[in-house]
Amino acid sequence: MLSLFAPRTKKTPVSKDLSLRLGPFLARGLVKGVPTTWQLLLGQLEMAPYVVLPDAGDRARYDGAPLGNPLFRTPLIVSQIGWEHFRVGHGLHSTPETLELHLAYVFHEGMPVFDLQLVQTHADGLGRLRRMLEAIEQSSTPAGVHHRRLIDLVIPDAAAYRKNFLEPGGWIDRAAAFDYPATDEAAAFLRPEFTQLTSFVDYCIDTFEPSPRGQSPLSIARQLSDLGTRRLREKGR
Fold first, then answer.
1. DSSP 153-192
2. How many C-beta atoms surround the C-beta of residue 203 within 10 A?
3. What is the pLDDT of residues 153-183, one digit of tens each?
4. Own/partner pairs for 137-143, CB < 8 Å, 24+ apart?
């Protein structure tokens, strides 16, 4: 009988020190600075509709998997990741375990740069991700056996998908070398500034005031509404 219960693992506390979390990118000049909480809030509000609304290729990526249909796939993924699967935003609040399982269960057609950069904000993030994916691929741990059995139900040829991460010169090696594709190589339905954590951080710093100080409640409400509906208005034109 198929069990949905994975071996228990303790979730790693998430540091709120963004100077530390973004340190690998700050040290290499890949981000301009550390955004404020307000800037991140506005940025993720604008970004959310671009990330949430499905793209035309969603169905094709899962064709052939027994539970590839989103009506079956989504509940299974939620059973493993939890309700954080539905938490839309910049991802800096996510635990390493949540990010790792997301990358394992959700098919990414191209290099998932934003998610890999989020992984890199955690101590030994890429090492942790590699060890988890290897355990799944090799069925070398009880958790690996469990997750491989379920992932095979939602991702067609899941071993080939994991190979993208694990092979020499693959996605994990490229991320470790900070070798990311250009932002304009991402899917056409995404705005370039929302394709990578680094470009998103810079966009927030460049676009939004550090705080709402001096704005009236009406002005703040209008700004929030404008940002949250921008993609819908663009699609309507």
1. HHSTTHHHHHHHHHSTTSHHHHHHTT----GGGS-TTS-G
2. 20
3. 999 999 999 999 999 999 999 999 999 998 8
4. 137/162, 137/166, 142/7, 143/6, 143/7, 143/9
* pLDDT confidence tier of residue 51, bands split at 50, 70 and 90: confident
Those residues whose C-beta lies under 8 Å from the C-beta of residue 136, and which sit 6 or more positions away, are 104, 144, 147, 148, 151, 162
pTM above 0.85, yes or no: yes
Per DSSP, 213 falls in state T
CA–CA separation, 75 and 82 (whole Å):
9
In angstroms, the Cα distances linking 40 to 29, 48, 210, 224 are 19, 12, 9, 12
